[in-house]
Structure formats: C-alpha cells, structure tokens
Design a protein that fits this description.
The two termini are 23 Å apart. The strands form 5 sheets. The protein has a 7-stranded antiparallel β-sheet, with helices on one face. The chain has a 6-stranded antiparallel barrel with strand order 2-3-4-7-6-5. It is mainly beta. It is built from 4 helices and 21 strands. It has one domain: Thrombin, subunit H. It is 9% helix and 33% strand.
C-alpha cells in the first residue's frame, strides 16, 4: 500500500456542502476533516473582522474577490478566476461581487491535476479593476506577513481546557460557532511550506496566541479564499485556502468530541486511528498550535499561465491544455524552504 494511502485517514480538507471526505495526500502533517458551515477565526474576538481591512491595497482586494457559491473566488485574468478544486461547482454557476451586485456566469473550468486549484472561465469579461495581481517568483521569506480572506465558521467565547505542563489546566482555544458565510479576514505569518503531494505545495501558518488580535486560523467554509503576501509594495495573491488541523479534540478520554480553533492542542485528547481510541497529547511548555494550509499559487504558475492564455477555451480544450502543461513544473518545489515545525501524527482525525 502506498504511503499516502496508509495515511489518508489522518489528513482532511476544509470541505464543502456538509460532506465528509478524506483527502488522499502524501503530506505527513496534521490536516483535519471539516464540514461546511462565517469568519476567518481570529484571536481577538468571536465576531471576527467582517469589514474591509484598513490598508487601502487590501481594501481593494476585499472588493476584487467574488462570492463563489458559499465560498470565494479570485479573478486572475479578465475572464478567469481561481478557487479551490475540492469545493466543486458546475458550469452555469455564477460568481458575484457584493460591492456592486455584478454577477458573471461560468462556462468552463480546469482542475489542476497536481494541486487543489481550479480555474473557472466566465462568459464575458471582468473589468480590469477586478483582476488581482499574482505573486511572482518561487521564493518566500520565512515569517513573511500574510492576510487571508474566507467565509468560514467563526469561533465562540467557549474556552477549550486541557492539561498544562507540568501540572494543572489551562485554556487551549475556543469552540467553533455556527456559520453564516460572512466574508472576513485575518493576519498571520508564513511558518514554512509543506509538501501536499497530490494537492500541491502548501503555505503553512500556525494559530499563534502571541500573534496579535488579528491572528487568524481557517475554519470550515474558508476553502477557496485567497491568501495575500506583499511584493513590490503590493498585496498579491499567493495562495488559495485548503485545509486546517487539528480541529477535533476531547478534553477527557471519554468525550465529548469538540471542534475548535486551537492555539495549543497539547494536553488534549486526539483520536488515534491505528488504535481506534482517543489518546492524550502530552502537555508541553511550548504551545502546539493548529496549522492552516493554503495551496501555493507561485508553485503552480506554469499551469496557471497555460490555462489563462488560451483564447476562448472550452472545458475540453482547457482540460487538454492543463494535462499537457501540468506536469512541467513539479521541479519548482525544491526552491522553497522546508516547513519543519509540524510533525507527523497518527491520531489527528475527525470522528
């Protein structure tokens, strides 16, 4: 059995339409299955940041990004937008923009064979002012600042409590709230890059309790949302939201199951698939935060370019083009710095 097949029950998507689907990935890190649920969760409040960022460039991005069903899509050319492949969609569905109520019907799409990206073509054209600049090059600086948009479930003020090192108890995070698909944003810093195998290279960033009030973590429903990193004094599209984990824990071995935004999962119980039981993650002096993952746009730039330069493509033509060009850029991943903070886990699963 292939290594990723053995581990596929351990890694999961920020998934769509109330589905529970395990992701077959090669990456030995903590990705948790999520359910469709509406804010990028932040440290500072349960409400989240639901109005445009104060930075003028990011405020522009806020209006450039469209609503794609229950999720988000980001225009990258006058007749194309990009989102997460796993959230699906159908030709004829529309992407809409709340700032002016404009709507554009889709006529075709291409799913990247080597990542979780999907590019959709619209009938007609977006105004040039809608098109978001993409991050160029294949290098990132460690700890570079990022801003993430999404429409996921917010957190509550209900604290999750677990063991503290060397003794006692302490707060570990907050439970998830119910979603209303409200657009929101958070900030973070890039901790590294993780090899997601079939779902592509992933930007990895943790939920650090000392990262400031706007520090954000993904939740269910945030899939497809954009991640922006500053380049040449401009906030550019660098990633598309894919996964988060761990999210499902217990405060005691006997339950109940808790779905939460965790800035420290040590001292809590995580499900262990091989033993089919809940095991205590030993409490540590250093916090063990959950991580969010967003598919790297720069690493797939050759495939993106191969799709959006095709004149008047149909779904079939786009698919053939993507299959021809898709494998050509797998070599690029060696240029990225390795993400070393996460460690393999056999018990990060949702039941």
């Amino acid at each position: 059995m292939k290594k990723w097949e053995q581990r596929k029950q351990q890694f999961f998507l920020v998934f769509s339409r109330m589905a529970i689907v395990s992701a077959m990935v090669a990456m030995a890190f903590l990705w948790l299955l999520c359910r469709d649920a509406s804010a990028v969760i932040i440290i500072g409040s349960a409400t989240g940041n639901t109005s445009a960022p104060s930075n003028s460039d990011l405020a522009t991005r806020w209006n450039q990004v469209g609503n794609w069903g229950s999720y988000l899509g980001t225009p990258i050319a006058t007749n194309f937008f990009v989102t997460a492949k796993h959230i699906g969609g159908q030709n004829g569905d529309s992407i809409t923009f709340p700032d002016d109520s404009s709507s554009y019907q889709t006529v075709g799409h291409v799913d990247d064979p080597s990542s979780d990206l999907s590019i959709w073509q619209i009938s007609g054209e977006f105004p040039a002012s809608r098109v978001v600049p993409m991050y160029s090059g294949t290098s990132f600086s460690s700890n570079v600042a990022l801003t993430v948009f999404g429409r996921g479930a917010p957190r509550t003020d209900t604290v999750v409590t677990g063991a503290r090192a060397p003794n006692g108890t302490e707060s570990k995070g907050w439970t998830w709230g119910s979603g209303s698909q409200t657009r929101s944003w958070g900030t973070n810093t890039l901790d590294g890059l993780a090899d997601g195998g079939p779902v592509g290279l992933q930007l990895a960033y943790d939920f650090d309790s000392t990262g400031g009030s706007d520090q954000g973590i993904l939740s269910v429903g945030d899939s497809g949302g954009p991640v922006f990193i500053q380049q040449s004094a401009q906030w550019r599209l660098a990633g598309i939201n894919h996964a988060v984990g761990p999210i499902t824990v217990r405060e005691t071995a006997s339950g109940p199951d808790i779905t939460a935004a965790l800035y420290d999962y040590s001292g809590l119980y995580l499900y262990n698939t091989p033993t089919a039981s809940w095991l205590l993650e030993p409490a540590t002096f250093a916090k063990q935060p959950a991580y969010s993952y967003s598919t790297s746009i720069p690493n797939r730039s050759a495939w993106v370019s191969s799709v959006i330069v095709v004149p008047e493509p149909t779904s079939l033509v786009l698919l053939v083009t993507a299959l021809l060009f898709g494998p050509l850029h797998l070599r690029c991943s060696s240029r990225f710095f390795a993400h070393k903070k996460l460690r393999p886990s056999a018990h990060a699963t949702n039941r």
